Amino acid sequence: MDHETDKVDQAIDRLPGPEEPGWDRPTPSQQQFICMSMIEGQVTNGGFHQIYFNGYEKFLPAALAGYRAIDAKPQAEIVERVMAMVRDDPWSGPPEIWPDPNAEERPPGSKDIGVYNDPWYALDLRELHRLKLDYLNAHPDQFRHPTKPGPNPP
Fold this sequence. Notes:
The protein is an all-alpha fold. It has seven helices and no strands. Helix 1 crosses helix 7.
């Protein structure tokens, strides 16, 4: 990992998670960065179904706001489409969120949010890290407030 990527990861690592005490202390930008990281980890671990399976869908709006703030248009577009698909058709998510918990398959015509996995995996992670770093460097005031004991991120 290069120094610049490490700087982004350190800024994210310094934040409490959304379900930890103190989540109300980070700035909106800090909350967006941690939610982006959480969503990226979930999708990497099991695709978009993993987000809903683990109950992380509540963090999608903050992640979407973060992708928009850093101008990560491809990520924002995919997250927005996934959210809309599930909102418009709950059958598109994993079986754990289907309207009928006894159903064994989706009804005809229902789509699957898994269609967005491959487009997400094809995105350039280096570009995403560059956008995060650019935002971090352009807005240091939004990342200087300590949220856990220890020194502030650079």
